[in-house]
Amino acid sequence: MRVWELAKKIGVSSSDVITILKSHDKEKKNVSTLSEEEIKIVENTVNKPKKVEKTEEKVVEKLVLEKEEKKEEVIGEKIIFNHNKNHNKFNKNSKFRNDRFERNDREFRGERTDRPDRTDRNDRIDRPERNNQNFGERKSFEKRNNQNFGERKPFNRDGKEFTDRDGNERRNNFRNDRNNFENKGNFNKDNRNKTDRPNREFNNVERKPFNKERRNDDNKKISKPFVKEEKEAVIEIPTMENGVKGKNSKVKSKFDKKKYENEKKTKEEERKLKELRDDFRKEDKKKKVKKKEKVIKSEVIRDEEGGVGLVVLPQEISIKELAEKLGINSSDIIKKFFMQGKMYTANAILTIEEAEEIALEYNVIVEKEEIVEVSYGEKYHLEIEDKEEEKEHRAPVITIMGHVDHGKTSLLDALRHTNVIEGEAGGITQRIGAYQVVWNGQKITFIDTPGHEAFTEMRVRGANITDISILIVAADDGVKPQTIEAISHAKEANVPIIVAINKIDKPGANVMKVKQELLEHGLISPEWGGNTEMVEISAKQKLNLDSLLETILLTAEIMELKANHKKRAKAVVVESRLDVQMGPVADVLIQEGELKIGDIFVSGTSHGRVRSMLDDRGNKITKAGVSQPVEITGFNEIPEAGDLLYCVNNDKQAKKIVEDFKNEKKDEINKKKHISLESLSKELEDQQLKELKCIIRADSKGSAEALKESINKLSNDKININIIQSSAGAVTEGDVMLAAASNAIIIAFSVRPTNTARSEAEKTGVEIRNYNVIYHVTEDLEKAMKGMLDPEYKEIYNGRLEVKEVFKISNVGNIAGALVIEGKITRQSKVRLLRDGIIIHEGEITSLKRYKDDVKEASVGQDCGIGIKDFNDIKSGDIIEAFVVEQVKQ
Ligand SMILES: Nc1nc2c(ncn2[C@@H]2O[C@H](COP(=O)(O)OP(=O)(O)OP(=O)(O)O)[C@@H](O)[C@H]2O)c(=O)[nH]1
């Protein structure tokens, strides 16, 4: 007979049989065949408890009586001994067993069962034996019945004592448990009464929950708390034969009591701990405040106790911050302002003057914080400083500048072909924004964006990429306005100039004349004792190009141009565009390190990963070194020319930098203030400015010179006035760019800016001051230098109109038939009549009509007729600038 067969026969579980045999040192499995002797052992063991059971029942009855007296509830025990199959709806003995049989059966058939861990159950399984012998090991059952049951947890015999102490709660728990249990559907109610046990009188309706509880013993899918209770039950509760346990209920009662006490204790402890913590926090806070105060006080530097203090403050500060810095209460400051009739909150922002006023009341002098401009690279720790020994020679980077038609493009093209390897028909196929030539084994990089505007635009963006500037002057034309501009730009950028006197092949070429003119602008050739190299060339005929290249290399050698070739790359965007197929494309010039395919980078507001790389000849390459121009793709958006490109560690870092930079940029645009005459006095006061840079534009060369002389005389030991450019003609975009890059103001003498120059000035915040009397210019500058320039009136630009036709009307005069090309003109507008950017007349309008009607204003795109007061010299093509003058509120 096998174990499971015997178990089935005698009505116990196989595990019980195994356990019984185990206690007799016989290791058996469910399918093991049993000997006669083993069967007997099992049968004897199983039969014995019946007697005990009776004894137990008696004991239980006795205990129940005791329990009634003590009114202590015990939940499980009743059910343990509940053998009344008639009323025990939740009798789980049978269910328990049947389940087991069923499981054993399934197990035997090799089916998966949710059999719980047997090791956990062994204690329970050997119950029959325990009833006879093993209880004694722990505590003799008899002894317990007589003495110890009460000590532990006597039964609640009537099952109604759930109302004592935590009884209600417990009952609820049971209800909940029951619900939970039933919901899980683990309990087979149909089997509940399938027990052949006699004398189950203990059952009553109230005990249902207990039975349910007990069912959990077998149910391993029960919630955690249940399992926990079950475990405790295993230790504490005496059990009957065939694995029926009432311990769960008993333990439940014990557990609940303990739980209650524990909970109470824990809550009490928690409360105390919380109180303690709060106290501690309060103290900590106090300490912190004290500590803070100490720090705050230390911000005011005093020579001696009670002496005058000094504090450094930013341009704008909140009351709260000021109070902290002064080591006082913000409410004190608020009160002071309140007394002055100003209602401020602690977060109100004060001007430096207001802060100074407050500080003085506390005997503290304010020093204004110096604003240190941090570059993009420095801000995000992208600039890596190199040790001298890490740096190696690098190729020079050259820009060509000069007056229109003096041969910039011709020279760039000529130079481009100087190193075309023989047989390379067609020369360089890919034209990118820069290229490299090799001369005498040395590389020279040329930036292929001629013109000083491009050069300055890069400078405005903080990219000073040019090492040497080539100033091209046509020998047959001499120094022209743009030549002068180019000189100013190069000088301002502190870039050495090499003059290329071009077109020497032309019959009218006069090199001497050119050199003389250049001398006037501070460029003196070495033969005349100066240090500006001058090479006579012909770009068209490729004459003397080699000597130009040699001069470049020589100058570069003197400059000792070096860079670290081995670190992560830093580059500058020379040109950018959107390619339909490749997306954003940029021509970049490597300035440091090595750029490789796959490198992750940031560049201004864009970022990306180098997807493809082409050299200046259109060859696909995988890496590029210092001074090498390459075309790369992989940007998420088009970068701007002049943006610096830095390789970073990962995509995450790149995104973060760009996000930060975008936000910063927004703020900067709002904050960035360019120098103006009004701000001059303030900046002088703050000692932030030692030099005022001016760009002069006048209606004639003569007036420009006269103005330059008058202004130069104004320089004193406190401030130097530096005229970085002075020429005739309308204010150009280039002037504005130069002013923006150099923090200069533009003095427009009887001239006006071009449309693009005006919008650029608006964008960059460059001040263009309009004058038509030299005396007024010097007067304003003097006042500004003394800090006495109080602007009373401010000009507000309205719009521009182009004169299309002029109508002569008798008794009225000339009327301009004009089209509003920008903004608007109103009846109140003042006007300036401009011809070639030069102010011909400034005055008021007498009439503003559309068709035959008088109108208040005419907007962009509309035609109108304008009569100008006391002025008839209107010509077709003239520009009328409309503006209003407003008084500045003091
Ligand atoms: N004879 C002669 N003509 C030249 C020389 N270099 C340039 N040219 C001519 O001068 C004209 C203008 O030359 P570009 O190279 O276009 O001048 P640029 O300075 O680039 O002109 P922009 O791009 O308009 O500013 C062209 O017709 C050239 O052929 C030269 O060395 N000799």
TrEMBL record:
UniProt keywords, alphabetically: Cytoplasm, GTP-binding, Initiation factor, Nucleotide-binding, Protein biosynthesis
Binding site residues for GTP: 402-409, 448-452, 502-505
This protein's record includes keyword Cytoplasm: yes
Gene Ontology annotations for the cellular component aspect, listed alphabetically: cytosol
Region (Disordered): 86-225, 244-270
Location in the cell: Cytoplasm
Stretches for region G-domain: 396-544
Pfam family, one: EF-G_D2
InterPro entries: EF-G-like_DII, IF2_II, IF2_N, P-loop_NTPase, Small_GTP-bd, T_Tr_GTP-bd_dom, TF_IF2_bacterial-like, TIF_IF2
Domain of life of the source: Bacteria
Composition bias type Basic residues, residue spans: 86-95, 247-257
Feature: compositional bias, Basic and acidic residues: 96-225, 258-270
Domain Tr-type G stretches: 393-562
GO molecular function term, any single one: translation initiation factor activity
NCBIfam families linked to this entry: IF-2, small_GTP
Function in brief: One of the essential components for the initiation of protein synthesis. Protects formylmethionyl-tRNA from spontaneous hydrolysis and promotes its binding to the 30S ribosomal subunits. Also involved in the hydrolysis of GTP during the formation of the 70S ribosomal complex.
Protein family according to the UniProt entry: Belongs to the TRAFAC class translation factor GTPase superfamily. Classic translation factor GTPase family. IF-2 subfamily.
Protein name: Translation initiation factor IF-2
Organism annotation: Streptobacillus felis
